Amino acid sequence: MTTLPERAAYQCYSAVNPIHSTIYFSPDCGEELAKLGLEDSSAAYFVSRAAAMGRVGPGTVTATFFHFSHELVARHLPAAWDVVSPEAALEARLRAADSVLRRVLGEEVIASKEMAEAAELALRATEACSRLARPLYAAHADLPVPDAPHLALWHAATLLREYRGDGHLMTLVGAGLDAVEALASHTATGKGMSTKWVLLTRGFSAEEWEAGRQRLRDRGLLTADNELTEEGARLRQSLEDETDRLDAAPYEHLGAAGVARLTELAASFTKTARENGAFPADLLGNR
């Protein structure tokens, strides 16, 4: 087993993940799906991300996405599949990824040898990912790798994102946190979605959000001012530590030199994307 520098795997993931996430904060995917008749933004998100699993119902999506209200999911699925098939949704998402990355990175970066190198490294890392108990990762791992290097990198970033995400959900369930409690405790760290964005996108009401915060207070995890208590901070850290452990395989497989190089390349791409407005300025925060 390769020994990596402390937090090197997490730093690599943090550099690579935004390359996938660009599609969630741009209009491109929604516009592609609207052309096919699916105009609601929440429906577009559920369809585009769930399509790799096929024509699944709301229960499967609520279980695998975790951080969304089941009522919101059920409002759109399975009805959305009558408008856009999973196959068409996957094609639309890939077209969107292409247009987004070309816009936020630029044609020179898209065509660079560094892009091709990053794609090769990221795909090599995914070779060590296991499908066992990782439903979203496993579904995406069955998809073909795109030929274009920037889309191959986006695909690999998707695999690494869903692999880590599946593992993270295991830790949340183990800690006895429901969707709102998980979101609220993450928001309190200052590294999670701000309250504004949670309420805009996750389908929970302000009352449900406050009730979740109260449950965290009752457990001694959150203060009256919605800051993490010492116990709450320890819990969030333990969740991250366990997620790191469950997510170690792809980066250990890539090796220290490969992880360092992929981190360097992906961080450069992510920096360019941020500077070109790929993400909202108020996306993260502890309020």
TrEMBL record:
Taxonomy, superkingdom: Bacteria
InterPro entries: HTH_67
Pfam families: HTH_67
Name under which the protein is recorded: SalK
